[in-house]
Amino acid sequence: MAGHSFADPSLAALYDRLNPWGPGDDFYLGLVREARSVLDIGCGTGRLLRRARAEGHRGRLTGLDPAAAMLVQARRKRRDVEWVLGDTRVRLWNGEFDLVLMTGHAFQELVGDEEIRRCLAAVRAALADGGRFVFETRNPAARAWERWTPQRVRRITADDGTPVRVWHEVQGDGPRRGRVHFTETYDSGLWPAPRVSHGVLRFLDADALDRFLAEAGLAVAERYGDWQRGPLTATAPEIVTVARPVRAPLPTLPPH
After folding, report:
1. Structure confidence by residue, pLDDT tens digits, 206-245
2. Strand runs (DSSP E) across the chain, as ranges?
């Protein structure tokens, strides 16, 4: 789960251990392999682009993330990728990328309508003709937040051998206007006190996503409910979206 806690350098160093490589990473890596130029928005530690470069990807790879601590991890492990600090407002890309990604449920951290519109407008501008924007959100019908309880503890080990326990807890009874407020707690017997951060994630269904995409001049080309490209159903865990730019219609010429 993405969260604001990774602005803390010591917790950012735990991200890859807390989120081991999985089927979603394989899905996105396959897309990156096919693209000449890639922009990864909310790239975190840059694991996806680092892997692609290590495999021999020779094209342009750009990772964008607002958390400096995450990019410290990215730069420390790979310097032949362009790492950019900030969000989509820090730089204007104009038709420069074959593929724009938002992985790790980063899209759900856009909690306001204007945040979503601003991000999608930047994505549309960044895409080359025929480019693709690919991202995933948790399917609200699957109600994933009901499993974010203190009883579900993840146990990981930091680089220095420190054992760390991590859990999440939803604040309130559940979504409020499609937004889930939660805490993310990190604790170790070797620390003086737990470290707690507060986060908000927005859950949008496919129809709402499609309206935002259409406003930005993007249209859904493919839609899946899981990383095996299964159909989107009421019980599917994900809404995986592949969108393409919509060409502006040619002007209608007046009759002679």
Report:
1. 999 999 999 999 999 999 999 999 999 999 999 999 999 9
2. 37-41, 60-65, 82-85, 97-102, 127-138, 154-157, 163-170, 179-187, 195-202, 218-224, 238-245
Amino acid at site 176: R
130 and 171: one domain?
Answer: no
Q: Which of 74, 134, 135, 83 is nearest to 105 (CA)?
A: 135
**Residue 93 structural domain:** 4-139+203-245
Average pLDDT over residues 133-137: 98
Radius of gyration of the chain (CA): 19
The answer to whether residue 185 sits within a structural domain is yes
> Is 141 in contact with 135 (CB distance < 8 Å)?
no
Q: How many domains does the chain have?
A: 2
| DSSP β-ladder status, 218-224 and 60-65 | unpaired
Residues 111, 147 within the same domain = no
Which CATH number is 84's domain given? 3.40.50.150
Specify whether 103 is located in the same domain as 86.
Answer: yes
Q: Environment class of residue 64 by beta-carbon count within 10 Å: exposed (0-12), middle (13-18) or buried (19+)?
A: buried
